[in-house]
Design brief:
single chain, alpha+beta, Cytochrome p450, 3-stranded antiparallel beta sheet, about 45% helix
C-alpha cells in the first residue's frame, strides 16, 4: 500500500548525480531487453529481469542514470540500509548532493509529497509514523472488515448482474477508494473526486515525467490538499470516529501532527493503497483466468480463508504492481565489489526480486499453494518504510477475491487487455470479463 512509489521530493526521477559514471563491466549489457519505455517490456518484464540477475548484482543503466539492483537479498538488505534514503535533505542541501532543486512551479506537489511518510527519513519519519500509528490502528482495520466485505459483495454482484464489463472500473477501483473514503469520512457525494486526484498525482512517480504530467499533478495536489484542509477544519469543530478525527487527536508526549502532515498522510493512504490494491486485483484475475488449473484449485478452497490469504500472497509475489522503488545513496556502499558512491540513485527492482530463484523455488511458476509463511516477497517493502497499510490492503484483496469466488463463479476473459504505458506502477488499461 504505502509502497506505491514516490519520486524523490527534491528531484523526481532525476537520477544519480550529474558526474556519476559506471565502472567498467558494470553497465547493463546490451540486449538484455530492460527498457521501461518499451510496451513489450512493460507487458512482460520478467525475461529481462532474469538476464539482469545473470549479468550482476548492481548494474548501471544510463537512460535513467540509476544503479539497477535485481536480486532479492540485495533489494531486501538495501531497503533496511540506513546509508540509503528516500530523501537526502535531512543531511544535505541540493547543491551538496549534486542535485538541482525541483522547479518552483511544482511546489504544491513537492510540499504534499515531501511531507508524506514515504519520502521522509528519521527522525521526522519516526515521529510522524509513531503518531499516525496511534490513529491508524489494527483495531480500526478490524472494525472496517464488515464494511469492506459488504462493499466487495455489492460491487461483484452488480458486475455479475450486468453479465460482465470492465472489472477494473467496476470493482477493483471503486473498492479501495470507497474504503479510504469511509475511513477519512469523505461524504459519498464527494468520493468521485478522489480517483482522478490520485491518478494525476501518481503520474509523477514514473521515470522522467513530462511537464504536462507535472501540471496535472500540481493541480490535483492543490485541489486535494484544499479539500482535506476543509475536512480537517470541520473535524476539529465536530470530531467523529473517522481517521481524520483520530489523526487530529493523536499525540505523544505533547507532540501532534501538523495540518500539512495530516494532509500528506491522508493523500498517501489513498494513493499508495489504491494503486496497490487496484492493480493486484486486476493482475490477479488476469493470471487466474489465464491459469484455469489454479483458479479451479482456489475455487475449491474458497471457503477456507487461509487458502485465500495464501493466494493473495502469491498474487502479490508473482506480478507485483510496484516494479521499482528508488533510493538515494547517502554514504558510499559496495555491492559485489562495485562501489556505488554517495549522490547516486539505486533502483530496487521489486518485480525481479520476487522472481529470484535464489529465494523462491521455481519462481516463474504461478502456484497458489505456496504457503504464505514462506512467501517472502517484497511487494510491501521492508525496513522503516514497510507499508503501514499492508493489513488493510490484504483485507481488501481477500474480500474482493472471496466475493468473486462465492457469488460469481464461471467468470472468463472477454478480451485480452492492453497494458498502460507506465512501468513503475504497472497495470492494464481495463479488464473486460463476462459469464
Amino acid at each position: 500500500m504505502n509502497h506505491a512509489p514516490a519520486p524523490s521530493s527534491e528531484a523526481p526521477s532525476s537520477g544519480a548525480a550529474a558526474d556519476a559514471t559506471a565502472p567498467a563491466g558494470t553497465a547493463v549489457p546490451a540486449g538484455t531487453g530492460f527498457d521501461p519505455w518499451s510496451p513489450a517490456f512493460v507487458a512482460d518484464p520478467y525475461p529481462a529481469y532474469a538476464e539482469l540477475r545473470a549479468a550482476g548484482r548492481a548494474l548501471w543503466y544510463e537512460p535513467s542514470r540509476q544503479w539497477l539492483i535485481p536480486h532479492h537479498d540485495d533489494v531486501s538488505a538495501l531497503l533496511r540500509d540506513r546509508r540509503l534514503g528516500r530523501s537526502y535533505q535531512h543531511r544535505f542541501s541540493h547543491e551538496e548532493f549534486g542535485q538541482t532543486p525541483p522547479p518552483a512551479g511544482h511546489e504544491p506537489f513537492t510540499t504534499l509529497n515531501g511531507n508524506g511518510l514515504l519520502d521522509l527519513e528519521a527522525p521526522v519519519h519516526t515521529r510522524i509514523r509513531r503518531l499516525v500509528a496511534k490513529a491508524f490502528t489494527p483495531r480500526m482495520v478490524e472494525d472496517l472488515a464488515p464494511t469492506v466485505r459488504r462493499l466487495a459483495g455489492e460491487l461483484v454482484a452488480d458486475l455479475r448482474a450486468d453479465g460482465g464489463g470492465d472489472l477494473l472500473a467496476r470493482v477493483a477501483e471503486p473498492l479501495p477508494v470507497a474504503v479510504i473514503a469511509e475511513m477519512l469520512g469523505v461524504p459519498p457525494a464527494d468520493r468521485g473526486l478522489l480517483r482522478p486526484w490520485s491518478a494525476a498525482i501518481t503520474g509523477m512517480f514514473e521515470l522522467n515525467p513530462d511537464e504536462e504530467t507535472a501540471r496535472r499533478a500540481v493541480r490535483a495536489s492543490e485541489e486535494f490538499s484544499g479539500y482535506l484542509r476543509e475536512l480537517i477544519a470541520a473535524r476539529r469543530t465536530a470530531p467523529g470516529t473517522d481517521l481524520i478525527s483520530a489523526l487530529i487527536a493523536a499525540h505523544d508526549d505533547g507532540d501532534v501532527l501538523s495540518e500539512q502532515e495530516m494532509v500528506s498522510t491522508c493523500v498517501l493512504l489513498l494513493n499508495a493503497g489504491h494503486e496497490a490494491t487496484v492493480n493486484t486485483t486486476v493482475l490477479g484475475w488476469l493470471h487466474l483466468l489465464r491459469h484455469p488449473d489454479q483458479l479451479a484449485r482456489l475455487d475449491a478452497a474458497a471457503d477456507r480463508p487461509a487458502a485465500v490469504r495464501d493466494a493473495v500472497e502469491e498474487l502479490l509475489r508473482y506480478d507485483t504492481p510496484l516494479q521499482m522503488f528508488e533510493r538515494w545513496v547517502l554514504d558510499d556502499i559496495e555491492i559485489d565489489g562495485t562501489v556505488i558512491p554517495r549522490g547516486s540513485e539505486v533502483a530496487l527492482l521489486f518485480g525481479s526480486a520476487n522472481r529470484d530463484p535464489a529465494r523462491f523455488t521455481d519462481p516463474d511458476r504461478f502456484d497458489l499453494t505456496r504457503p504464505a509463511a514462506g512467501n517472502r516477497h517484497l511487494s510491501f517493502g521492508a525496513g522503516i518504510h514497510y507499508c503501514l497499510g499492508a493489513p488493510l490492503a490484504r483485507l481488501e484483496l481477500a474480500a474482493s477475491f472471496e466475493a468473486f469466488l462465492r457469488d460469481a463463479p464461471g467468470m472468463r476473459l472477454a478480451a485480452e487487455p492492453a497494458w498502460r504505458p507506465g512501468y513503475v506502477i504497472r497495470g492494464v488499461e481495463e479488464l473486460r470479463v463476462t459469464w
